[in-house]
């Protein structure tokens, strides 16, 4: 990177962080996630410079069954992430100081050939992870979780999966097509990518095609924490049961933004009423701190259906808290939020 520009960035622990919002207005300049450096700006700084955590976009929505637009999702989330600040008090961590985080830009995928697109995502993810970086991918529709699981399972073996979504996404085919946004986790099961002792959907709701959907899903090994379960049990109990189910296995987290109620995330392709709040989702994700998180995706943000960046902002905060869990790393103490350390808040 250009040393003259370093002053414009927050640099802590030798990690190059976001553009400094006190010096450069946060609405100025090109959007990277959280105004972080691009990966190629880091690698330009010398051979030793590499990222521990990489944010990458996949502009792809050829797998959708209803409203399109998720091909624009990654850049929308980047634009909606300009207000994020360097310290995350909810997890008591400065994620961009604890780890080098960078934005790798977008994977150029074929919009006319789904299987070719899946191959390209797998190759790109594998290359980005080659020197140990962990990926947070911004979709794109949910089809892209399959190649991301392929890349992660090749590295770690069959992975535990926490899948935050209104939908099961373990359906078989649509119009005879096997690779769609409603089918990635059935394909992942069939391909042996999943550790079938450690799978759970969270936030499930909405009508199904029939009871066989649930029987198939259970056969693949998934547990289900419905949206209503989150409401009835509360986030702490949900976190406890997810941690028990997964243990210290390599864990992949896939967040379909439609897990949120359409009031919290209207900009998505297949909305369902009765969803979680963004507060509930963020708090459950924070509860994963210290688990062996190996990668994550946040998918199904469709900006043409968004209003006032509601969905983009929710997704940006989800990515930020996932990066925070990754930056803290496996084995990090459960700990608590920074709030209350100075005795200024209640409930900690
Ligand atoms: N993965 C998402 N967002 N939706 C799947 C819905 C599939 C269907 O139309 O039944
Ligand atoms: Zn969904
Ligand atoms: Zn989905």
UniProtKB/TrEMBL annotation:
Keywords: Hydrolase, Manganese, Metal-binding. Its cofactor is Mn(2+). GO terms for biological process: putrescine biosynthetic process from arginine, via agmatine. It comes from Tersicoccus phoenicis. Pfam families: Arginase. PROSITE patterns: ARGINASE_1 (PS01053), ARGINASE_2 (PS51409). Mn(2+) binds at residues 142, 165, 167, 169, 256, 258. GO terms for molecular function: agmatinase activity; metal ion binding. SUPFAM superfamilies: Arginase/deacetylase. It comes from the Bacteria. Binds 2 manganese ions per subunit. This is Agmatinase. Belongs to the arginase family. Agmatinase subfamily. CDD domains: Agmatinase_PAH. PANTHER family: ARGINASE/AGMATINASE, GUANIDINO ACID HYDROLASE, MITOCHONDRIAL.
